[in-house]
């Protein structure tokens, strides 16, 4: 029973805090740039404003264009409900594992890319084509991370991996470090952050994610933006949960432990968001065809993480 | 009995097909009867699958070789494949009812179609090597005739020639393979082969020849070369069957030999098959991304999916050879699940391609676009097929890839170092293939069905006849069902793998319906049912929230496109431009892909040109090489044609002496 309650709480929580986290990253970046910046709560107002505006749909768009925002947001939301944020005692914990998580993010990307191509403009196609190229390397990299984690802990379910790490089943491992590095690189690519993509860009030729959602307006745009925000929260919960699960409540824990878990989750998000802001400010965006080096590196790191397991076993 | 009746009906239909003449309703009637026969066979297979024990009675007919009757038998494995094959053939026959009148020459298609169905089904129920090979050839030759249906096109004639050569090669390998298994006494029936013990060298050769023979039919790299030529050349409903199920019949042959007749394949062959499967999957999808021809793209995507299945089969052999029977059963269930899935969504996509060709007359992606609006039924069905084939939840393609990944992740538990280091690499290849497949189908669907029409034909596309719409809709529905209730399917499949792996096994043993939990409840689980319901719920909540808090107003306007107003549809992304980043990243070394720009000098009026060069390493490296060697030998042998009578007599005498010597030596031993 408690699993259902905490699941509902998580369903609401991920959507409720995501704009704040994105707002905080923007605030950190603007302060580092020497600007005052908008309040961290600005994204809530932006989304509200977009919801009130009428949606403009191109004549050439089909039903795919109008359905895509809902499917994209829904699947990212579902993915975010699966990653334990503050407790591993979730109703959906058994319904999907890390492989399914990767695939759910793939669903969102699939629909966004199709929506980009639906209107029939060159920018949409450009964004979709680049996004699929990035994904074709980022997805295997993330599956390799899953592989090495499953070899270490014997399971692909995030809740079980977290329980394994919390029970002290694993010490400091080279493989874990490599897997973390690969996962961070994948997270940067999946969220379209610098150096892969620039979420604040206004130059069409450098856009990837923004180019796909270029034709959206009103509530459709609000959903697409919202999906990006939830995706960022999801990756923070994933990295914080898998590699620093301290504070996470477990099945059988009471409400106090869950409150501690909530506090720990928000603190982790705050730290990671600040780090992201600092990182993005201190680095320049890459050329498109350098992505392959970056993400190919992530894929190799993931592969090395599994191979190193045997090396460390054999030594 | 029912099955026998349906099979004889198919043979009779072939004769009727010849007599159909120019009257369209007669062709339609033949297809309708084909559909009924297929449904009968489907019911027969499904009924058998539900029964235990798994093996039906042997039927012996006094036909075939004089000293040997023809043996037939239906067991769980053949029943499963019978369901797979006849599901697709029923759909293709129903589709044919509407499609046959759109063919340029229906009289070259209708008679051979029932023969093709007969051949595929007969392979599945054959219980001796002779009948198996006869049925196999029936299947090959009838499909070869169907490839030649549009024989006026030189490309099709070339495709048919390559197909014939490869089919001969495959049958030759299988013939030798069965010959080795039959041993010196010539025990050609399957029960005798099962009982026979193979020694080291013969066992090795049997596996190798089975891989070559069945692999060439299934399209394993590097034996795939004929597949992307022949599959697209046939009429679309036949392409659907060749790609969707004939490759599965080939895999049936492989499974029958490796898991049943041979039975004791060493684990190292499993490792070899996994590597071949991985290479096939990645190469297949990379080829597919480079194609502009819709049907060729689909054929290459078949190569990819066969690779995925072979990874599962190889893993099962590696587990079985190492004594891990439960894991072997898991990997085999995963492979079979993917076989079922691929037969459905590939049939769906080929039938959709047929609808596109009927509606527009084009199969070049560069001339399509915007079809989702003009052909709404096919648009929705093809989208569902694209999601399924890209292995995305909650549809069926994801479930089988999930199972393959789960069994792959258990691969390093084997004690062999080759597996420990090899499995992660194969896993990376499989993941890469899955991700590239999504890119490939975003490209195929996005270019063909979305955007603005790129040609007049696409702009004037019309709805296709009802039978062509209903069949794709039905197959799309199956993709959803097979993804939403995975446990029901795996339970049925576990009956099939029990006799092959010798272990009772249920994927859902730990948590029960509807949870897939292959190893144990804590080792990773998946429930398509729960995921579908939750996901749909969240999407509806999103819709309600957005419409509740915001406005529901919509305004139609011109595309914004950052203020650049483009009226010409050629400014959109094309198949080639979509593939460009992937081509530069993945194909620069494998396919030696290069782009060159031909820019005219200032003042010169000719148009600028962007050229792309892609070299197929396997065709150029392997097949062209073999072709040169054959030509060389033929030139040498050619001289023998111009000898004098005296020399011919001398050669005959020499041969006679040689053969007598051989006999003499053998008798003296």
**Overall domain count of chain A:** 1
Work out the strand percent of chain B: under 5%
Low-confidence stretches of chain B: none
Give the beta-strand count of chain B: 5
What does the oligomeric state look like here?
heterodimer
Cα(first) to Cα(last) distance of chain B is 52 Å
- Please report the number of helical segments of chain B: 24
Strand order of the largest sheet of chain B: 1-2
Helix content of chain A: over 70%
Radius of gyration of chain B (Å): 26 Å
Q: Average pLDDT of chain A, to the nearest integer?
A: 90
Task: Specify the overall morphology of chain B.
Answer: globular
Largest sheet of chain A: none
Global structural class of chain B: mainly alpha
In N-to-C order, the SSE pattern of chain B is HHEEHHHHHHHHHHHHHHHHHHHEHEEHH
The H/E string of chain A reads HHEHHHHHHHHH
Query: What's the helical proportion of residues of chain B?
Result: 55-70%
Features:
heterodimer; A: 315 residues; mainly alpha; globular; B: 669 residues; two-stranded antiparallel sheet; 70% helix
Report a brief summary of the structure:
Chain A is mainly α and 315 residues long. Chain A has one domain (2-314).
